[in-house]
Design brief:
Length: about 270
């Protein structure tokens, strides 16, 4: 039977004067894929189309906003930002395995990328023994798949560096976390030692260095919800409020550091 209940996903949550802004992780994944589509060096990599699909789907997860449950609501009743979900949460292993298995069903390379992403997130984190056992099994599966596809580890690392870049840049933008006035924030430092940074200049324009995109500027959008309540009784209450929210758009204009212009604004959809 088709489930018509409102579906849940992890969220990027920020406090504002009238309540909370909420960005679904599925929207974050779409923004990450859009970032990937504009990269210059990465577009020449093998399996780049499949990698972009993997980037877009890497955080997709569907759960129902259930009555009496508090997966998406903190003990104080606030929407739960994804960073507040404990690394040792019981559901992480099942969710991660489901994402990886679904990716492998689409394409072996998607599975390799999703599996590598799990390795990056959880290998050195304070997770459960079950998670570490799953990561060990995934490492063996990746080895077998790469052998079948005749792919070298160097290509996996090079490609995943770009996936990681897109993921982190999308999270920074989605959380409205770009520093102001030339205070620089690391996006990632890749396996080759290149450190990518993001900041705002005096004109509030968003800058990225070194500049990785084909064009001298890139325009991006992300949907979000502004919830005008401070607390919720349970997941069902939050899900209902999010469903009734008007969808709004956050706009971003990123420009090469050599250019000077305006950068960031918000408006309603």
């Amino acid at each position: 039977m088709l489930n018509m209940e409102p579906g849940g996903t992890q969220m990027i949550v920020r406090s504002v004067d009238q309540g909370w802004t909420v960005v679904f992780h599925t929207a974050h994944g779409l923004l990450a894929q859009r970032i990937a589509s504009g990269l210059e060096e990465a577009r020449t990599l093998p399996y780049w189309f499949e990698t972009q699909v993997a980037i877009g789907l890497h955080d997709d997860l569907h759960r129902v906003y259930e009555k009496g449950k508090r997966l998406y609501v903190t003990q104080a009743g606030a929407p739960r930002d994804f960073t507040l979900v404990p690394m040792a949460d019981d559901g992480r292993v099942v969710e991660t395995r489901d994402r990886i298995d679904e990716a492998f069903r689409k394409h072996s390379w998607l599975g390799v990328m999703q599996s590598t992403h799990a390795e990056c997130l959880y290998r050195n984190a304070c997770t459960t023994p079950e998670m570490q056992q799953m990561l060990n099994a995934e490492a063996e599966r990746r080895e077998a798949v790469l052998s079948q596809l005749h792919i070298q580890h160097a290509l996996v690392q090079q490609t995943y560096d770009w996936m990681h870049f897109c993921d982190r840049l999308s999270l920074i933008l989605g959380g409205d976390d770009v520093p102001a006035m030339h205070r620089r924030l690391e996006i990632i430092t890749n396996n080759e030692g290149t450190r990518f940074e993001i900041w705002r200049d005096e004109s509030d324009c968003i800058r990225v260095s070194p500049w990785p995109f084909v064009d001298e500027s890139i325009k991006l959008t992300m949907e979000y919800r502004a919830v005008k309540r401070l607390s919720f009784a349970d997941d069902e209450d939050l899900g209902r409020a999010l469903k009734e929210c008007r969808v709004e758009l956050r706009y971003f204009l990123l420009k090469n550091d050599a250019d000077e212009s305006t950068g960031h604004r918000r408006t309603r959809a």
